[in-house]
Q: What sequence folds into this?
């Protein structure tokens, strides 16, 4: 009997190991084209890479051109433990300057490091999985033009069971998908542009959508607001059902992204300040596309907890 | 016994009610309340300015001056409305940095006043003339809020 139990446990462990193995994109799947670093800059600001990866300056968030110095080191105190943003500058040893295209694409869209380890979903690869792969390659071309920054951030300090990195393989089976969350853009190019920015590079859902017990997004409450994982109140609902946004026009939203001013001429607050400053760097058409998408998605209200 | 209990409860309730009334009376004159009201006035004055900048309202030089003067008076008054002891309470969104970095906060207020005064002195008569002046004054809202305001929860 004991032997049978042991055998069952072994089989389960083996199956778990196999199911949690990293799944990769093959280099043959990459498009054969010259990457465009100027187009990559647009993705950089849409994604706000610097908001997590720019090295803090005197303990404060980086502003202006310091947002381009991606040495990492910023800490995020969450219910899962402390995450530390790594160096993604072009430094060949401390940063990602030595990475190949396919290594970068697998990191961004499959959450797998060049060493074949899973990344934690705090790095929003589950959103980036919805990006066109050409955008990912353009982004890499832009990151390659940014300065090398020496130095490495410390390791994450997570609580059990989150500390078991291999378990993320199972998490990915459940939550990682490149499918649209809300397929609004199928016959409207502007909406599709907005969808790709919001659901993909912009990774808006990572903060504005509530998570379940395993830390996966509850897509039935897409963008309907969520508790702030860093413990500072709530991240607002940004669907048409939002208390604050329901009266805002597409133009109001686009103006907010550009200027940081609400229609009442209040200013953005909290972590949205940095996000808005990134969005201000985009073309007006991109900001309008994001706004149009937010007006087109289903009105949702998320439960309080 | 039952009667006594009811009496005590009634007494408790009325005492509680009068304490609440007293608290509200104090709150109306508290710095937290006053600066909140003043900030609302600044926001109300900002609306027509923003509407003109966005092309949602037609330009009106008198309205511009009126709004700018509201900002001027407010920028001058704000400095006295953050005394020691008013760091918290009444849902204030004032950040602790106002008291830990008083010099920085005072400098931010002075900059707001300076940019507002510059715009007033120029007496802009066209939207083109007003745009850069109002824009410069507007920048102070965000700069100050980012540093010296906490998010309400």
A:
């Amino acid at each position: 009997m004991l032997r049978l139990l042991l055998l069952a446990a072994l089989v389960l462990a083996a199956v778990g190991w196999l199911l949690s193995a990293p799944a990769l994109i093959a280099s043959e799947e990459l498009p054969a084209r010259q990457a465009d670093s100027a187009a990559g800059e647009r993705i950089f600001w849409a994604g706000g890479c610097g908001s997590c990866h720019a090295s803090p300056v005197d303990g404060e968030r980086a502003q202006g051109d310091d947002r381009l110095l991606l040495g990492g080191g910023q800490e995020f105190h969450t219910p899962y433990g402390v995450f530390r943003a790594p160096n993604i500058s072009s430094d060949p040893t401390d940063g990602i300057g030595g990475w190949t295209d396919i290594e970068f694409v697998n990191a961004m869209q499959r959450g797998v490091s060049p060493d074949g380890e899973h990344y934690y979903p705090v790095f929003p690869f589950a959103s980036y999985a919805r990006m066109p792969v050409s955008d990912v390659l353009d982004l890499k071309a832009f990151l390659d033009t940014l300065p090398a920054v020496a130095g490495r951030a410390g390791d994450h300090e997570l609580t059990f069971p989150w500390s078991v990195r291999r378990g993320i393989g199972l998490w990915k089976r459940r939550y990682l998908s490149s499918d649209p969350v809300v397929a609004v853009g199928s016959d409207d190019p502007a909406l599709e542009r907005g969808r790709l920015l919001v659901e993909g590079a912009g990774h808006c859902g990572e903060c504005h959508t509530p998570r379940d017990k395993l830390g996966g997004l509850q897509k039935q409450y897409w963008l309907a607001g969520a508790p702030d994982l860093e413990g500072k109140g709530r991240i607002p609902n940004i669907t048409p059902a939002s208390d604050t946004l329901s009266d805002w026009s597409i133009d109001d939203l686009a103006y907010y992204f550009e200027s940081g001013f609400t229609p009442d001429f209040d200013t953005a607050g909290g972590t949205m300040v940095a996000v808005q400053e990134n969005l201000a760097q985009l073309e007006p058409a991109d900001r309008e596309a994001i706004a149009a998408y937010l007006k087109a998605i289903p009105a949702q209200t998320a439960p309080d907890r | 016994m039952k009667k006594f209990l009811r009496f005590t409860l009634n007494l408790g309730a009325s005492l509680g009610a009068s304490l609440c009334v007293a608290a509200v009376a104090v709150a109306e004159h508290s710095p937290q309340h006053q600066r909140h009201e003043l900030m609302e006035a600044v926001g109300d004055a900002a609306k027509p300015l923003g509407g003109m900048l966005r092309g949602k309202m037609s330009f009106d030089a008198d309205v511009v001056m009126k709004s700018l003067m509201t900002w001027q008076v407010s920028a001058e008054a704000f400095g006295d409305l953050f005394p020691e002891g008013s760091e918290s309470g009444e849902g204030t969104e004032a950040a602790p940095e106002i008291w830990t970095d008083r010099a920085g906060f005072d400098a931010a207020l002075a900059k707001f006043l300076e940019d507002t005064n510059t715009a007033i002195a120029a007496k802009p008569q066209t939207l083109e003339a007003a745009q850069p002046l109002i824009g410069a004054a507007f920048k102070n809202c965000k700069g100050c809020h980012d540093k010296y305001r906490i998010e309400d929860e």
Observations:
- Chain B has one domain: 31-148.
- Chain B is about 75% helix and 0% strand.
- Residues 13 and 71 of chain B are 44 Å apart (CA to CA).
